[in-house]
Amino acid sequence: MASVQESIDVEVPVTTVYNQWTQFESFPNFMNGVESVTQTSETMTHWVTKVGGAEREFDAEITEQHPDERVAWKSVDGKSHAGVVTFHRLSDTSTRVAVQLDWDPQNLVEKVGSVLGADDRQVKSDLKRFKEFIEARGSETGAWRGNVDAPGNAATGPAGGETSEPPSNPAFNDPDSGGATSGV
Known about the structure:
184 residues, alpha+beta, Alpha-D-Glucose-1,6-Bisphosphate, Chain A, domain 4, 7-stranded antiparallel beta sheet, two-stranded antiparallel ribbon, 20% helix
């Protein structure tokens, strides 16, 4: 399993940053290789990507979403992956966006790319483009502020008694603004 953890500070209030991130159909504006994202229900999205000449389609389920705190998802078909984005209020006008992705490289090119850090560079580049996109706009293109509770939420603990270690990057373990990203 390959994994990437990256974060970036954005000079926009946390609510604006979160609201924009929930506009999944805008992802092609700042995510290289994402051709389209269609939100098919409150918790389902359909993705079309094209990376290195290979086009892929898959569906992803939003497994947890809390306004101004976090959005987590996992694929339900196609390429196996999961991720979480957390939003950390730094001040009234700035926010840290932290991304953690976990996936299963499918072929030799993907495996080599993962080992050589191509995925880390891609996520870092996408976050930089997101920063430029939202700072240039100064406002979101829309918002969805609904809640999606994780299976086995805090009241009941992780599903099936699972436990996981917290990520090593402190940006992903800030209890004041979204908490740890374990369980994804």
